[in-house]
Amino acid sequence: MAVPVSTDYAALAADIKRWARELGFADAGISGVELGTDEAHLQRWLDAGHHGEMEYMARHGTRRSRPAELEPGTLRVVSVRMDYLPPGTRHAWEVLGDGEAGYVARYALGRDYHKLMRNRLQKLAERIRASVGEFGYRAYVDSAPVLEKALARNAGLGWIGKHTVLINRGAGSYFFLGELYTDLPLPVDPPATAHCGSCSRCIEVCPTQAILGPYRLDARRCISYLTIELKGSIPEELRAPMGNRIFGCDDCQLVCPWNKFAQDASEPDFAPRHRLDGARLVELFGWSEEEFLHRTEGMAIRRAGYEGWLRNIAVALGNAPGTPAVIAALRARERHPSPVVREHVAWALARHGEPAAP
């Protein structure tokens, strides 16, 4: 049935935010669909080629920045966030300082968030339907061309920092975002204001100098891109700066002063699996493809693929102390069927002064 004309949309908006928190989201906000300034920023980024091989960033044209083109009839966007930092996790700087351990971005240590959040957004939509009747909506969690950070900023959930990550004044930046596009004319929230000030720690700390300046990220140099999105060879000049980062990178968040307010995840499924908050590189490099697929089932790490996983770890082993165990692990993969893996293993061995096998 149609939404009743007498619907109190201000009360409904308050209910939606309350229901979102009851469903496990840390916060929710509502925005309109005007993203003209952000569309221009995106186009400049694409024109500069900073998206690298992520051709999907350009493929959808203006649908990414014009919600009503992606989902006709959209008037408002309900943005939600969910904290992901698992309590009790080995400290990030400790892992980064341990050359024999592999560093996995904190968001990827446990269960993949996509399906979990999408299911909860669907439950949120069902609660709205139970209250007002049938209405138009579509839930998204990294599943469509959506300018999620700009929408969340406009919904009051945080500002986009100089590292291009969303920052919440009371919760830092360790959280996921999701959206519910809707045709309900809900009242919108005031957008968040920026509070980075003169701080430039995120720009200065980036291991590969991927942050070219405030709000300017060259994904082609970003370790998250190199270890996840890039499917071929990692540029040789960027391998040493990667250190022991084998899936993603958190450095720009680790130095952000606002993350002193970061909140622990309330979702137990985000807890680290297989000791990935600091597992030994040699052990991880020894996983067979079957083990990799089994152990990463339901995890974001699957996105790298087995070949990418071995490529990333080979680079980390090249940057690790040249112990007999490290050299033996690399030798064991020297004749791997993948030319990409072989190339990075050969580079790692050369870093340790080890000649290629005859």
TrEMBL record:
Q: Locate the 4Fe-4S ferredoxin-type domain: which residues? A: 184-216
Q: Which domain of life is it from?
A: Bacteria
What pathway does the annotation place this protein in? tRNA modification; tRNA-queuosine biosynthesis
Residues annotated to bind tRNA = 231
Q: Which residues carry out catalysis?
A: 142 (proton donor)
Q: Name one GO molecular function term.
A: epoxyqueuosine reductase activity
For the ligand (cob(II)alamin), the binding residues are: 64, 142, 166, 177, 224, 249-250
The protein here is known as: Epoxyqueuosine reductase
Q: Which organism is it from?
A: Fulvimonas yonginensis
Name the gene behind this protein: queG
